[in-house]
Each structure stands twice: as C-alpha cells, then as structure tokens.
Amino acid sequence: MVIRECGILFRGFTLVYESYHKTAGEEIDNDLRSGLITAFLAFAKTAFAKNLVEYFEMNKFIIAFIEDKIMSRDNSTEEPEVLITYAILDKEKKIDKYISKVVIPRLEEITKKFKAKYEGKTLSEMSQFIIFKDVIKDIWKEDIKTVDQRLKGPLF
C-alpha cells in the first residue's frame, strides 16, 4: 500500500498537506479537493450514521479520513469546529484491514499531534503549518514509498 497524499482540512480549506506521489495527470486545486472531501463527509453524515464511514473508494484510489474537533482563536461561536485528517492511498484488494489497523491509527496520531501544537491558536494563518509537513512524513515513514523505492534502499 502506498500513501499518495495526506492532509488536514478546517472549514473546508486545506491547512496543511503533503503529496508524495501524483494522483492525477493534471494539477488539482487544493481548495477544490478540500471542498470535495468535506462534501463527502457531510453526505456520509446525512445519509448514514456518524462515524460509520471511514473511507471512500474510487477506481484507483481510496480516501480515508477521520473527523475530530478543534478550538480556534478566531472562532466567533466559542465551540470546537470540525477538523478532518485524510489520506489518499492506492486501491488494493483486502484494504479494509489495512485501513483499520494502519491508516486510521496514523490519521489519529497526526490529528493528536496537530491539536497538541495548534489548539486554541488562530488557524487562518496558513504559513504556520508548513513545518507540520515533517511530522506527517515522519508518521507515515515507509508507507509513502513505492515498492521500487523500498527495494532500492536495502539493495543499492
């Protein structure tokens, strides 16, 4: 399994994301992708029970996600708001177990570390999240490498 991209969404916008491998031939607008993932989750909550859907399958890829809440300093309601952490990965057979045992726990770890660092801060200042890309990459470790990249390490 190869993780192609991972990111964190807030208010329908991408706060931070890291792309390790292309998922399309053309460049895709991050805000468009964020809106689509947010819409998927809104649909899943409306059509199904909350927390019932962990991922969406497409022809070649899977979008796995978790939803949490975070307080932002620039929140006028003083209520925690939705924070979505997602990963796009290659679609393969018997993916359910991998998602539940590997992907979801790592998404939870990413969310936990993000909240520990940014809870209660102004989340509209995007430049502050650039350094968090290293945290995301460190959590995924070998899962962001293709089979060829994994074999090159020990052999060459």
Describe this structure in words.
By secondary structure, the protein is α+β, with helices and mostly antiparallel strands. The protein has one domain (3-155): Beta-Lactamase (2-Layer Sandwich), CATH 3.30.450. It has 4 helices and 5 strands, in the order ββαβββααα. It has helices spanning 30-47, 95-118, 132-140, 147-155, and strands spanning 3-10, 13-19, 55-57, 61-70, 81-90. The chain has a 5-stranded antiparallel sheet. The mean pLDDT is 83.
Give the SSE map.
Blueprint: E1 3-10, E2 13-19, H1 30-47, E3 55-57, E4 61-70, E5 81-90, H2 95-118, H3 132-140, H4 147-155
Antiparallel strand pairs: 1-2, 1-5, 3-4, 4-5
Helix pairs in contact: 2-3
Quick one: how many beta strands? 5
Order of helices and strands: EEHEEEHHH
Largest sheet: 5 strands, antiparallel
Report how far apart the termini are.
22 Å
Shape: globular
Counted up, domains total 1
The overall pLDDT average reads 83
Give the CATH class. Alpha Beta
* Helical amount: 25-40%
Put simply, the count of helices is 4
Proper CATH architecture: 2-Layer Sandwich
Radius of gyration, taken over Cα atoms and rounded to an integer in Å: 16 Å
Predict the CATH topology.
Beta-Lactamase
> What structural class do helix, strand and pairing data support?
alpha+beta
Low-confidence stretches: none
Read across the widest sheet, the strand sequence of neighbours is 2-1-5-4-3
Q: Strand fraction band? A: 15-25%
